[in-house]
Specification:
By secondary structure, the chain is α+β, with helices and mostly antiparallel strands. It contains 5 helices and 11 strands; from the N terminus they run αβββαβββββαβααββ.
Length: 213
């Protein structure tokens, strides 16, 4: 999203080069997360949207941020709420992530030609999950799923590194399989009077790219 050490290209720098005045980032995604990002044309709009995202501008309805992610294994129960405290600047903070199993599937048949070169040909069980943030801690979804033993595939920070290595050989996995799929902003006078509901399709590097259908 923004420039920093080891980052040559960022969304912030691209916006700065293409538009005057530069649009402002309202929220952020992890570097390897695909999907929807909201930017504002003015400082006033950015402040208004930031208040909505923080839950300060509309006490009755909040911004909904939904994600799709592919995790290792099949969570039980298939729908629930993950409540794990996460460390934020040295302090443990309450955090909530809602999840729902959309589809369980196996990686092997989809890449049968690659199986012969893999270290072991066994099938790898995975799940496509719909995820919704109840709080917005850094790397929350990734940390929560890793914490319940179902890390996101392709996660190079909190994931199952031997599994990621195997999947790279099996099906060429090179990306974190986490996607910001839907953003719902409630009606807000003077900002978005009728509200906003936008969705983004899965990138083509997700296994079986029709998973959300």
């Amino acid at each position: 999203m923004q420039g920093g050490e080891g980052i040559k290209v960022s969304l912030d720098s691209i916006l700065s080069e293409k538009y005057t005045p530069r649009p402002l980032l309202v929220h952020r995604l992890d570097r390897d997360t695909s999907g929807i990002i909201l930017v504002a044309k003015t400082k006033e709009a950015a402040a208004g949207f930031s208040a909505l995202f923080a839950g300060k501008a509309n006490k009755n309805r909040s911004v909904i941020k939904q994600y799709l992610g592919v995790c290792a294994g099949i969570p039980e129960p298939p729908q629930g709420l993950i409540r794990l405290k996460l460390e934020v600047r040295g302090t443990d903070k309450e955090s909530k992530t809602h999840y729902k199993l959309i589809r369980a599937f196996s990686i092997s048949g989809a890449a049968k030609a690659a199986v012969e070169t893999a270290d072991s040909p066994e099938e790898i069980s995975c799940s496509l999950l719909e995820l919704e943030l109840g709080t917005g801690r850094m790397h929350q979804i990734r940390r929560h799923l890793a914490g319940i033993g179902h890390p996101l595939l392709g996660d190079d920070k909190y994931g199952d590194f031997p599994l990621n290595k195997k999947l790279r050989k099996l099906c060429g996995l090179k990306h974190l399989l986490l996607h910001a799929s839907r953003l719902v902003i409630p009606p807000s006078p003077g900002l978005v009077p009728t509200g906003l509901d936008v969705s983004a399709p899965l990138p083509n590097y997700f296994p079986n790219n029709n998973l959300s259908g």
